[in-house]
Write a structure and sequence with these properties.
The protein contains 13 helices and 10 strands. The protein has 331 residues and is α/β, with parallel strands linked by helices. The chain has 2 domains: 208 residues, NagB/RpiA/CoA transferase-like (Rossmann fold, 3-Layer(aba) Sandwich), CATH 3.40.50.10420; 38 residues, no CATH class. The N and C termini lie far apart (40 Å).
């Protein structure tokens, strides 16, 4: 697949256009109903009025209550979900944006966090500051996947914002063996995001849902679409594949091969990995990530229904990141 071709991750032709049109319709419906909250719906997983209530219904679902380890998207709409998981003592994994680091996931373990830090840790910035970067080989077995959605339907069909990374993350974790075909996949949405059956096109790489939580109830899906068992070859162009350092290793391990040195080198981007950034000093204050990681957090934060807003400050933990980090074993 040519790296010159820029297209929706949904694929070519009529399916891609239908998905783009449906996204536009949902974003506009949320805007017109004044239920799209900061930072706006268009081009995003929409943050919606009632996200906190939807998270509460999800947290009351027996499947959620049995889960000990979650993989969750980092979008603002699902921040109440991440906070509920951390407060319930569940380990949460969040992907690094675009899987661009050699350690492409952040582990948030409540046992390694000060309880006053959980609100801050549930934000995108807080996860980056307080989460432990881990490689795919270090992930614990995942019991539940929470993804962000633009649209859903009763058959479990799901539409994302068009980048394809949620489906890619799922395929990567299936290939790595930390997910199975039976691992439940859920989301939280506003009622305006629920579409009629058959309106959402589903392709081979698209991940279907087992349920979705609304502000007034939890709905399970009559799932009809088979989920991918790994990263499908046609789901990525060469440019995206080369920008994901861990992909060659995971695919090689899944097939019993060892990636060639030239291919491994081609997937690494010099000076852009999290490991590389950890040892660089910041241009503004000359403070390295290592020194920041071992510094105690100091500002106070707040929690509650303000999940619609951006990140709050962290509560003072008095504990160093270095002291919190530990390698997680299987639950």
């Amino acid at each position: 697949m040519s790296t010159r071709r820029r297209k929706d991750a949904a694929g070519d032709g009529a399916h891609a256009e239908r998905k783009r049109a449906l996204r536009r319709a949902v974003w506009e419906a949320l805007r017109e109903a004044h239920v799209a909250r900061f930072p706006g719906a268009r081009g995003r997983i929409p943050n919606f009025t009632g996200a906190e209530a939807a998270a509460e219904h999800l947290a009351a679902w027996p499947v959620w209550q049995r889960a000990r380890v979650l993989k969750c998207n980092p979008d603002l709409a699902q921040r109440p979900v991440r906070l509920a998981a951390l407060r319930a003592g569940k380990v949460v994994y969040v992907a690094v944006p675009r899987l661009r680091d050699e350690l492409p996931f952040l582990e948030l373990d409540p046992a390694a966090l000060d309880p006053r830090d959980l609100w801050a840790a549930s934000s995108i910035r807080g996860a980056a500051d307080r989460g432990r970067p881990v490689g795919v080989d270090e992930l614990r077995k995942i019991d539940l996947v929470v993804c962000g959605s633009v649209a859903v339907d009763a058959t479990g069909a799901r539409l994302g914002k068009g980048g394809g990374y949620s489906d890619l993350e799922y395929g990567l974790l299936r290939a790595a063996g930390v997910l199975t075909a039976r691992t439940p996949v859920v989301t939280t949405v506003h009622p305006l995001q629920v579409r009629r059956r058959g309106q959402i096109p589903m392709l081979a790489h698209d991940v279907s849902l087992d349920g979705f939580a609304l502000p007034d109830r939890m709905r399970t899906c009559d799932r009809t679409h088979r989920r991918p068992a790994g990263v499908l070859p046609d789901a990525l162009d060469d440019e995206k594949r080369a920008a994901i350092p861990c992909l060659a290793h995971v695919e090689a391990r899944a097939t019993g091969r060892t990636p060639s040195r030239s291919k491994a080198r081609s997937t690494r981007t010099s000076g852009t990995t999290r490991t590389g950034r950890a040892s660089r000093t910041s241009g503004s204050g000359g403070t390295s990530r290592t020194s920041r990681a071992t510094r105690s957090s100091g500002s106070s934060g707040s929690s509650g229904a303000s999940g619609a807003r951006g990140s709050s400050g962290a509560s003072g933990s008095g504990r160093s990141r270095g002291g919190r980090a530990r390698r997680g074993g299987a639950p």
